[in-house]
Amino acid sequence: MTHSQKLLKRLDAIGLSLASSAGAMALIGLGSAGSETTRMDAFSDLDFFVIVQAGYKQAYIADLGWLTAVHPIAFQFMNTADGYKLLFADGIFCEFAVFEEAELVHIPFSTERIVWQAETFDPSIVKPKQASTAALNVEWLVGEAITNLYVGLCRYQRGEKLSAARFVQGYAVDRVLELAALVEDEQPAFRDVFGAERRFEQRFPVTAVNLPEFVPGYDHTPQAAQAILHYLDTHFTVNPAMKKQIMSLVAGTFYQPPATSH
Fold first, then answer.
1. What is the arithmetic mean of pLDDT over 241-255?
2. Cβ pair 44, 4 in contact under 8 A
3. What whole-number distance in Å separates Cα of residue 214 and Cα of residue 167?
């Protein structure tokens, strides 16, 4: 049996356990355990929501007997007020949350699949709101990226290398990931509306070629900033004054514009 088959079998078993548990209304698979099971592989885990009747939520969170009835648990960690990250003793990893029916309308999620439902459950409440299709604000994204480069390089110069790496190789790169759709056509792949970095290499292969230069590591933030600036300057309009400041910081100097006489 493949890992994917084990995951799906485990999810079905959780559904059967819920079917015999008081107050349970539905089991909703998410991500690769939801409507994207074709991308499930040896490195996938189980993401799911358990929907319960009003008044039952805390009981399901406090007592995981409905899960231990399926398979022994080796590790559990309550990572939110609504649920857990959990490892079964056979190596299957899960992340799940428990919600009452009335709460579901306020919870953002996508790629869902109803694995099990009670006869009285209304499946229409599972459909999430449509994601916004607002156009990208290019000026804002570029502005954020170059100012992240600037702040990160300033922190690098004063020895704050960790903060610098996050600004340049994290925050600025996040903006590049959003801008990639304006540089190349997105290739067919499963898009995660909550994480632009998911499957980015498959979706935007032209931009992805630059990722090793964009994220070279803790000691190489100036090189990363230079590579990101070059990408931005090639495809978008970068303010000349900010470009000069960034390049001077990359070179290890801090450019001070000449004083203006009054």
1. 82
2. yes
3. 12
